[in-house]
Amino acid sequence: MTTTVPAADALHRVMATAEGWADPYPLYRQLLEQADVYRSEHDDLWYAFRHRTCRQVLQDNRLGHDSTRPLRRPGMGEVRSPRLREHFERRRRRGLSMVTANPPDHTRLRGLVNRAFTPRRVEGLRDRITELVDQHLDRIAEAGSADVMADLALPLPVSVISELVGIPEEGRALFHPLLLDGRLEDGREPTDDQLREVDASFEERDTFFRSLIEHRRSIPQDDMLSALVAVRDGDDGRLSEAELMATVFLLYFAGFVTTTNLIGNGLLALFQHPGEMARLWADGNLVPSAVEEMLRYDSPVQFVTREVLEPAEVDSVALAPGEAVVAVLGAANRDPARFPDPDRFDVGRTDNQPLSFGAGIHFCLGAPLARLEAQVVFARMRERFTHLEPLVDEPPRARGFLRGLQSLPVRIRIR
Fold first, then answer.
1. Is the pLDDT reported for residue 43 higher than 60?
2. Using CA atoms, how far apart are residues 264 and 299, in angstroms rounded to an integer?
3. Does residue 390 surpass a pLDDT of 50?
4. CA distance linking residue 236 with residue 230, whole number of Å
5. Could you report the per-residue pLDDT of 250-269, keeping only the tens digit for each?
6. Helical packing angle, 287-297 and 274-282, nearest 10°
7. pLDDT, mean of residues 326-341
8. What are the backbone angles phi and psi of residue 387, rounded to the nearest 5°?
9. Can you give the pLDDT at residue 1?
10. pLDDT, tens digit, for every residue of 60-81?
11. Among candidates 218, 248, 250, which has minimal Cα distance to 233?
């Protein structure tokens, strides 16, 4: 017999406890059974759980971003610590990116980079991605074991987006996703030393990008960074210097961090469901549907926040400007009203439309690239390795707003 956990308690456990971060899905199930939209008295935020409700939140342009309002973090409410508030305000002042922009700025900024991520352009990268995957798998095969996160899931997408944007080898180590500021997002008050360390890391990356931008001004190359610098230096005023910095950083960081966690979470799901792994290993045609199921079953992005810019209604709940809504994508992807038997991992699931990349005008620009990289990774692994097995039962999870793994040690057998 299952004991119903009150919505307030279940939500607190998901957002603010180690147990909830480790396995939020039983708690999501409880929340889905109790409410479509729920207001938390703990942090004064609205939460949406159902697939249809989250999609409505993401597609309604009256819900967007307002950087003038106090920063509120799900599960923790408004940032009240002066030192932490100052840190986040410094980050806000670094510039406007398309992630935090509303129309018409969002339309302008996204239009500058859309052409780099069209399905046709991304598909043209398949051969190069396959070449990079094979290079990493060659090293893993020779060693006979590996940490999938450090040896494949991170360096592969870093290499792909680095070549696309134009980041030289010496700068790539600055952007390790597990060493960013996730430590400021996990519900614990950071120390002054931690804040100084994170700020210094941000400044190091800013200095690197400023230097690289100046180099591209002097010596343009055939990459996205040079193209954006040319737009910035044109006379039409489409891109400010701050927007240039913010856009390049966003493209680079977002270009690998989700893919890294998709690969790690996806392989872990296969290990936890050996029958489905055997099914995928026996039939390569299941690779595309398997990747979609990995995205649905354990999404790297578990929730996103939208602020109410104009009076709006979500699932018959009236929302006023100044309020905010959290779309809990991890719950939406396990909604039984949208996905039959949602807690079952099924590599052949059909009619699968997870919200892991969002929806509406902020739908993830790099979604086609992330899907392609994951598909190539799992296609080549099943072709080259007879068997993979984890060396630990519960690999450690990374802290931060993205759901992923710190490490995933494995042993392999080669065909």
1. yes
2. 11
3. yes
4. 11
5. 888 888 889 999 999 999 99
6. 150
7. 96
8. -155, 140
9. 42
10. 999 998 877 766 667 665 555 6
11. 218
Give 4's DSSP letter: P
Cβ-count burial of 203 within 10 angstroms (0-12 exposed, 13-18 middle, 19+ buried)?
exposed
Instruction: Give the β-pairing of 385-390 and 324-327.
Output: unpaired
Q: Please give the model's pTM, rounded to 2 decimal places.
A: 0.90
- Measured CA distances, 46 to 50, 99, 184, 305, 307 (Å): 13, 20, 22, 9, 10
Backbone angles phi, psi at 113, to 5 degrees: -120, 0
In the β-sheet with 385-390, what is the strand arrangement from edge to edge? 145-147, 409-414, 385-390
Amino acid sitting at position 295 = L
Phi, psi dihedrals of residue 151, rounded to the nearest 5° = -100, -10
| Closest alpha carbon to 300 in 262, 264, 329 | 262
Beta bridge partners of 318: 313
> How many whole angstroms separate alpha carbon 295 and alpha carbon 356?
6
Distance CA 220, CA 118 (A): 23
Name the β-bridge partners of 317.
314
Please give the average per-residue pLDDT across 98-116, as a whole number: 83
Residue 96: band (very low, low, confident or very high) from pLDDT cuts 50, 70, 90: low
